[in-house]
Amino acid sequence: MAQxxxxxxxxxxxxxxxxxEAEAAISDEPLMGGFVHTSVLHHASLESALAYRIxxxxxxxxxxxxxxxxxxxxxxxxxxxxxxxxxxxxxxxxDRDPACxxxxxxxxxxxxxxxxxxxxxxxxxFRQGRRDLAYYxxxxxxxxxxxxxxxxxxxxxxxxxxxxxxxxxxxxAVVGDNVSMLHSVTLGGTGKEEEDRHPKIGDGVLIGAGAKxxxxxxIGYCSxxxxxxxxxxxxxxxxxxxxxxxxxxxxxGCSQPSQTMDQLLRTHG
Length: 269
Prior knowledge:
- By secondary structure, the protein is an alpha/beta fold.
- It folds into two domains: 12-146, serine acetyltransferase, domain 1, CATH 1.10.3130.10; 153-268, UDP N-Acetylglucosamine Acyltransferase, domain 1.
- Helix content is 41%, strand content 14%.
- Strands 3-6-9-12-14-15 form a six-stranded mixed beta sheet.
- The radius of gyration is 20 Å and the shape is globular.
C-alpha cells in the first residue's frame, strides 16, 4: 500500500516576521491593538492582509471596501507573483530605508509601498482587459497617495520609493527589479506620441529626488540619476548622470547604487 505523504506547511518568513512584530507593537502600544489586529493578525496570509489594506485605503462612496476586497482577493489568487513582489518590496524597503525598522511598517504606514501594491492590482486588471476598473484604481491611488502610475506601466520587484510624494510613471514605462527612487520622480513622455514613449529603467538603478526621465530611452542597469536632473538621452550601465539636461559625470561608484542609496556626487582634482 502506498504511503500517504504528510502535507508540508508553507513557510513564509516575511509574513511570520510581520505577525511577530504586530504582536510586539500591540504590547508596546495597546491603543494600536484594534488597528493592528484588523490589518495584520486577523489574516492568515500576507495576501489576505494586502487585499484588506488596499481595499480599505482605496474605498470611497463610489466603490465599497468589500467590492475592492473581492477584486484584490481574486487577483492574489490568480497571480501569486503579485504578493511575491510585495514581499521583495518589503525586504527592499527594510534594507534601504533608514527610517524603516520593522517589516510591519511598510504594510501599515508607508504610502510608497501601499501605492505600489495598489498599482500592481490595477496593472493586473489592465492585463485582464478590465480597463475602466484599472483606471479607477489608478485614480484612487493618485488621490489617496499622491502617486500617479498608469496601469499599463511595468514595475519590477524589490522596489523602494522613499517618501513617494508626486511620483508620475507613464503607460509604456518599464521599471526593472531592485530599483530605488525618491519623491517627485517623473518617468514621462516628450510629446503626444501614442506608441512606446516612456523610459525603460534597468535593474538596480537609483533615481534621485525630483529627477525627470523623459522619452523612450533606456537607463542602463546599476546607474545613478542625481536629484533634480532632467534625462533626455539614454544612459549606459553603471554611470552617474546629473544636470539639466543630464550628462554623464562619472561611474556609478559602486556595483549596486539602488541598495547603497549613496546620492553624493564626488569630484576628484
